[in-house]
Design brief:
about 475 residues, alpha/beta, binds 6-O-phosphono-beta-D-galactopyranose, eight-stranded parallel β-barrel, 14 helices, TIM Barrel, two-stranded parallel sheet
Length: about 475
Amino acid sequence: MTTTFPDGFLWGGATAANQLEGGYDADGKGPSIQDVMPKGIVAPPTEEPTPENLKLEGIDHYHRFAEDIALFAEMGFKVYRFSIAWSRIFPKGDEETPNEAGLAFYDRLLDELEKHGIEPLVTISHYETPLHLARTYDGWVDRRLIGFYERYARVLFERFGDRVKYWLTFNEINSVLHAPLMSGGIWTPKDQLSKADLYQAIHHELVASASATRIAHEINPDIKVGCMVIAMPTYPLTPNPADVLAVMDADHENLAFSDVHVRGEYPGYFQRTLRDAGIVLDITDSDRETLKNTVDFVSFSYYMSVCQAAEGGEIGEGNIMGGIRNPTLPASEWGWQIDPVGLRIVLNQFWDRWGKPLFIVENGLGAKDQLVEVDGVTTVEDDYRIDYLNDHLVQVREAIADGVNLLGYTWWGPIDVVSASTAQLSKRYGFIYVDRNDDGSGTLTRYRKKSFGWYRDLIASNGATLTV
Ligand code: BGP
């Protein structure tokens, strides 16, 4: 058996608290923005949590985490990426002292991972800003969020820093321009926000991220902190230089966030964007110093590529930012275009650009699954998911052969969770099926899909069972 995956490659899966935990008000948890987003990003938030919001119960991981982690262990996971719900730790977000019961929950979760020898990878903020911070401060538009986040991050590093080596500061930080509420906790509706407000919010998040990196390294120099961005390779729709230039502009908008995280300062093209828009950001000398605390690695989600053009082209569906449809590629049932080669391209692009270790912390296929009985066992014959996974990992193997330094790969939603964009449960990513439906019905029983055994064998062989 041959494999180009390095020894110690971190195979696993990734989730986010608000999409699977449930227990939305358990043990002193305060409401987060997700508790009032019953439709994800496809409709405005509600005033109060409403029963039709599937995230309030999620898949009840809050009470079933031991069972779920045992299933991950059965697949041989080396790493599990999860997020900490900010409002479990600081229910409103601006308190002085944390909620002990919230911290204790993550102690128990980490105990379970340790029992199975699974390395934790923790996202500090995954689309779940405390609702109070959104409503009272308008989220990251307000500079005071930096201090609240620093306090929160410090509590986490002090409590868990000797048990958790890998940390991510913000999930998909480059999505703020596209999903201001979900990504930036910004309560003002998107169409009423000025560009200046959005860029100021971005600046505050970037400073908070760098500050958290500094705090983590002070508390424990062994901690590795990464940024996390949506990777969306962008192709010119035609060879027309104007289209290639449109790609450059789109790349700049997407990559600025990691450029700052890796280089510790704003790139020239970003400053030009601000100049051209007549925006003068409030950036203090102390902010500039803080930004110099650069990340140890770059992590990203990868679902799809897009095209860009100076004019024309048909806008397609996509992961938050989207773009022009590529006429050469197939798409998922939700219109996200499937492009395994794009993953190799983006891995090379990122490695060439930053020379920092990379981590694929999300990749996956949302699909409608059908439960069936096979030899008396309830399962899902999800060959489409296996094909997607196989084809993407073949390209990952190629990228590693190209010389890319890759720490690991975590499949998005190894167990079915509530979708971030549409808040559906029927958009399933898991190797484990959860009996819960979009109308909230279901027993919450877990079933192993066909992909469960496929991924288990793949991990056991360190990638050697891939087929071309
Ligand atoms: C990413 C988010 C995740 C996740 C994933 C799949 O953008 O970081 O939280 O949900 O996309 O997206 P969706 O759930 O919308 O299908």
